[in-house]
Amino acid sequence: MQFCGMTMKELPAGERPREKMLTRGPEALSDGELLAVLLRTGNRGETALDLARKILAAGGGTLTGLYSMSAQRLSSLKGMGPLKGASVTAALELGRRFFAEGSPFPHTPMLTARMVYDYMIPTMKGLDHEEFWIIYLNDKNYPLHRQMLTRGGGSSTVIDPRQVTRNALEKNASGIIMVHNHPSGNPNPSQMDIKATDRLRRAVEAFSIDLADHVIVCDNSFFSFMQDRMVVI
Predict the structure, then answer these.
(1) 164 closest CA partner among 105, 204, 210
(2) Gap between the Cα atoms of 199 and 217, Å rounded
(3) pLDDT number for residue 45
(4) 1 assigned to some structural domain
(5) Contact 144, 138 (CB under 8 A)
(6) Residue 64: per-residue pLDDT
(7) Domain holding 15: CATH number?
(8) Where in the sequence is the domain holding 188, given as residue range(s)?
């Protein structure tokens, strides 16, 4: 197993990914080196670091691209297999849950679409399918609860305004914010998005519940129906 003319064991101890992490901390490692620690071993003719760089390249060179790949797709890459694929998928999912856990409910009112984006992007970044969420608000616009209602394929989800209204009433919510993502990377609303927003607005307003906004989220941008414009991050 060669790396720049030498095997991993022939590298100085301080430059081997695992030893480097233990002595200098994980922040000292590149993305490829951290992946190599997860993979533990390479294959005939390549080190764990070679393999890590190869699967990073398969994800477009970014962790977001890697996260978008399913466990099955990772496992199918040459040199990976189900055990390595599962290890990488589990690590990426733990990272996503860490960021989502870090912001359970803001202690400030949801007053802007940017606040909604910042609140939801740790949960929605890198998804290869659409998810539709509702944020329930009290009469001061403080979040009471958030809930994923539907999970769709690569391009669309279907919502039930009656279910949203029922949930809002059960939570004594005075308002709601719709949030869903576009895996395509284009946050501009489709005609279906516009119609779904209008249907939900009319449904909840019949029970004196305010639809405060509908925010469409992409990794680096969002669209706000309230602001009626796209914002690039």
Answers:
(1) 204
(2) 20
(3) 80
(4) no
(5) yes
(6) 83
(7) 1.10.150
(8) 105-232
Residue 119 sits in the same domain as residue 189: yes
Instruction: State the distance between the two ends of the chain, measured CA to CA, in whole angstroms.
Output: 42
Rg of the chain over Cα atoms, rounded to whole angstroms, equals 22
Q: Are 41 and 80 in contact (CB under 8 A)?
A: no
Residues 142, 175: Cα–Cα separation, whole Å: 10
Domain check: are 114 and 228 in the same one? yes
Which regions of the chain are under pLDDT 70? 1-14, 100-106, 153-157, 233
Q: Are 59 and 65 in contact (CB under 8 A)?
A: yes
- Residues facing 214 on adjacent strands: 178
H-assigned helices in 102-150:
113-124
Q: What is the DSSP code (8-state) at residue 214? A: E
Give me the count of residues in the chain.
233
Question: CA nearest 118: which of 227, 231, 225?
Answer: 231
